[in-house]
Amino acid sequence: xxxxxxxxxxxxxxxxxxxxxxxxxxxxxxxxxxxxxxxxxxxxxxxxxxxxxxxxxxxxxxxxxxxxxxxxxxxxxxxxxxxxxxxxxxxxxxxxxxxxxxxxxxxxxxxxxxxxxxxxxxxxxxxxxxxxxxxxxxxxxxxxxxxxxxxxxxxxxxxxxxxxxxxxxxxxxxxxxxxxxxxxxxxxxxxxxxxxxxxxxxxxxxxxxxxxxxxxxxxxxxxxxxxxxxxxxxxxxxxxxxxx
Length: 244
What we know:
It is a single chain. By secondary structure, this protein is of the alpha/beta class. The chain has 2 domains: 72 residues, CATH 3.30.1330.30; 162 residues, Alpha/beta knot. The chain has 9 helices and 10 strands. The strands form 2 sheets. A 6-stranded parallel sheet has the order 7-6-5-9-8-10, sandwiched between helices. β6, α6 and β7 form a beta-alpha-beta unit. α1 packs parallel to α2 and α5 packs parallel to α9.
């Protein structure tokens, strides 16, 4: 976590939230107690701020200051409202292309994906508030600044975002090995949202149940999977190829 994007101390974090600062992640000491900590928890829940409990050793590594059991990072970008973004893209007259990242947790993979998304004309990236990779300095650096050019939406539930997209006429395709269809079997010329899963578990099974299509990349080596940012690039560039 970069020092210039860091807030430490319970009162400072409460004031930042109330002032409308976009906090990407809040780390709380596992066993922290007290009225002020309860006030912080209440404020975060009211404003739907993502937080994680961690050992005090992690907080001490993040800052040498008196953190009082709480350290937060300010997001370097502002997040977009999903419904507003989808409506704007649909009204623009172009064929939409959205990217949904289901529990992707590595900031560098996230940055690499954002960079490819910007190069392939993705209209928006959708991530969950819980369990998603942070939008931090590593993300910005790995994206080569593309994070400032691609709208990012944070949603409460990935499944609700999928239902909304489907209701808006956007076809949803999940990248998964749990299918017989390859990416190259599908037509990608319609309004589209591609769902990529986490590095270790892939797309959540409950999400796989509700998508319109599932697709995999053909594999010829002995290793059974690709890095998620590489797989995402293959999916996005097949969309580009078919649409040109």
